[in-house]
Amino acid sequence: MNDANTRRMLAQWREERNAAWLYQRMSEAEKLPALAEVYRRLAVTEQRHADVWAERLRAAGSAAPGFRPAPRTRILGWLAGWLSPAAVVPGLAATEGGAANIYGAQTDDKDAASMAADERGHARLLQVMAGNSGGMDGGTVARLEGRHRSGGGNALRAGVLGANDGLVSVFSLVMGVAGAQVESKTVLLTGFAGLLAGSISMALGEWLSVQSSRELVARQIAIEKQELEDSPEEELEELALIYQSKGIPQDEAQRLARQLLSDPKHGLDTLVREELGVDPKELGGSAWVAAGTSFALFAAGGIVPVIPFIFAAGLTATFWSAGLSAVALFIIGAGITLVTGRAVWWSGLRMVIFGLMAAAITYGVGRMIGVSLQ
């Protein structure tokens, strides 16, 4: 066992055996028959991988030793039985992704390349299942099937929070400068400078975020296309497992997956939608639209506390700025209830209280600094 290649094969054999043992334990603990079958089939795949490494060890003159689950594997198995298999799914998704990377690095090994495709499929499946206690709830199933998209709620949430960021940050900035008892023109200039800087920063950050996400999705689609060409049966198995995780019987899931993948173009589209959760035509949306929207929303919120200083000066402008900002904070807080479902008055007043507290703190700090400078 001193040979480096033999030690590597032994380590990979142990990893696969531990994964097979854990998936089998999850299958036994799962109360939903469809999900229990998914875990059982994952165990079969991992055991098949382990058998490959065991055979290679024998060929190298080193038989695989007796198997005992690792302490971490035993703990995860205990959690799956005591809580539920869903409790350990998120951690397993990361583990499968790591295994796919390890196998993917072994570019000269055909078996390793096949195992890498399997592990990537397992990771995507587990990511779909992660965070849903007891498997897939109705809302998740409907979302995955395209009947109930959360994009509208996410867009509303992003819009409300973007306007809130602009309002609170510029309001606090204006109050801090106003507290220093400087000229109103200085407060106005500072407010506009903060508004512009914040809007550009938000837009740039949103553009980078969306563009990076689009590039990542495009790369994943390319990988998915290559895997579909190289290993169509494995991709069929992945898609069938996803449908099983939604509660579709095994035979029906297999039939549906085979029918969808019979056309390579439509098959790739289906795999991308089901496994990656994105529309291949949109790749998660336009980075420029996201940047423009972010800029506009931040500016819309940030302009509110600045407006009074255009028409008034001194404490009058400060009081008007605080009053208008409080009204805007209440409206934003009430708007959040469209997403959260909480009481309008509670959410609105909570937002007003927090926003005024932040402004009061910066006003006090500005006042102290202004007095010290004078």
Question: What is the C-alpha radius of gyration, as a whole number of Å?
Answer: 28 Å
Biggest sheet record: none
Mean pLDDT comes to 77
Poorly predicted regions are: 131-155
The rounded distance between the terminal residues' Cα atoms is 78 Å
Order of helices and strands: HHHHHHHHHHHHHHH
Q: Tell me the fraction of residues in β-strands, as a range.
A: under 5%
Helix content: over 70%
Tally of DSSP β-strands? 0
Number of domains: 2
Q: What is the molecular shape?
A: elongated
Q: Indicate the structural class.
A: mainly alpha
Instruction: Give the number of helices.
Output: 15
Task: Walk me through this protein's architecture.
About 7% of the residues have low confidence. This protein starts with a helix and ends with a helix. The longest helix has 47 residues. It is an all-alpha fold. Helix 2 runs antiparallel to helix 5 and helix 7 runs parallel beside helix 15. It has two domains: 129 residues, Ferritin; 149 residues, no CATH class.
Keywords:
374 residues, mainly alpha, Ferritin, 2 domains
Short description:
The protein has 374 residues and is an all-alpha fold. It has 15 helices and no strands.
Present the secondary structure layout.
Layout (H helix, E strand, L loop, with lengths): L3 H26 L3 H27 L11 H12 L6 H16 L5 H20 L8 H7 L6 H29 L4 H47 L1 H14 L4 H12 L2 H13 L10 H16 L5 H4 L2 H27 L3 H30 L1
Helix pairs in contact: 1-2, 1-3, 2-5, 2-9, 4-5, 5-9, 7-8, 7-12, 7-14, 7-15, 8-9, 8-11, 8-12, 9-10, 14-15
